[in-house]
Design goal:
The complex is a heterodimer of chains A (189) and B (80).
Chain A (H helix, E strand, L loop, with lengths): L1 H15 L5 H18 L9 H19 L6 H5 L34 H4 L2 H13 L2 H12 L4 H8 L3 H23 L6
Chain B lengths: L7 H12 L5 H13 L1 H17 L12 H12 L1
Classes of the chains: A mainly alpha (189), B mainly alpha (80).
Chain lengths: 189, 80
């Protein structure tokens, strides 16, 4: 069924944030579809339908995760120990300007558009998304790749505005870092 | 600058919220002041904006906005 097929990959990815295996995530999505089917006739457009559907997936998967004893604190989901803004970029307490840049970041404005938009650049972004903590990737995917609003994302992922911004900040910073490493290859600094 | 001025490291940590328009008046003003004087942070801000733009070019399977009527129709077929 086409309508289901369209949503299935993103829903599975979402469910997998909270549960132990692909198989369990598939069960969650199944269960969520049943919830959607039941709730649909009385759904009133307080949020977009898409957001409401994803929220159901999130809730089913979270509940299932708790039952699996796999309840994940937000800090772990967010990758708290692993801030993509590296303190070593900045001067230490004994340097002339503590907290100031050691070396300024590269200016990307001189980079030709066809390199910026090249296949390789976009592959680096996709790879960064695949390698970052799942919750960061999900927020960046919905916000920046798919263009959802922050309200929609908070609603769908059942996140507070603050937590959504933490995830977005880390995820975007990670992609920037990956892009910087790639784009500054072979350039004079 | 006042003793309340921000370091580059502090500015970088605030930039996503700055871009999101989520900073309060005072923080926003301090970031603006810093950016006006600091080429390093202004460049970083440009990179973040570019990162967001380029992320929008990545093609992934779209999550479509869904029409309730269409979904109800689809389910009707499904249950048959």
């Amino acid at each position: 069924m086409m309508m289901v097929d369209q949503h299935q990959p993103a829903m599975l990815r979402l469910a997998q944030m909270y549960v132990s295996s692909r198989a369990v995530a598939e069960e969650c999505v199944q269960e969520a579809w049943i919830g959607i089917l039941r709730g649909l006739p009385t759904f009133e457009a307080r949020s977009s339908l898409r957001t409401w559907m994803y929220k159901i997936v999130t809730n089913v998967a979270k509940t299932r995760g708790v039952r699996e004893g796999r309840s994940i604190p937000f800090s772990a989901l967010a990758g708290d120990h692993d801030d993509p803004v590296d303190p070593s970029w900045f001067q230490g307490p004994d340097d002339p300007f503590p907290g100031g840049w050691r070396t300024f970041p590269d200016d990307w404005r001189g980079i030709p558009e066809d390199r910026l938009l090249g296949r390789e650049t976009l592959d680096h972004i996709a790879r960064a998304l695949d390698s970052m903590p799942a919750a960061q990737a999900e927020v960046v995917r919905l916000r920046d790749v798919q263009g959802w609003s922050s309200d929609e994302v908070c609603n769908a992922l059942d996140l507070t505005e603050t937590n959504q911004r933490v995830l977005l900040h880390r995820g975007r910073s990670r992609i920037r870092r990956e892009l910087d490493a790639y784009l500054s290859e072979g350039r004079d600094r | 600058m006042s003793d309340q001025s921000l370091t580059c490291h502090e500015v970088i940590d605030l930039l996503s919220n700055y871009i999101e328009g989520a900073l309060t008046g005072d923080d926003r003003r301090r970031v603006d002041e810093h950016l006006a004087l600091c080429d390093g942070c202004a460049t970083y801000l440009e990179q973040m904006r570019e990162t967001i733009r380029l992320s929008g070019m990545v093609s992934e399977e779209e999550v479509p906005e869904t029409d309730k009527a269409a979904l109800l129709d689809a389910f009707r077929d499904w249950r048959r």
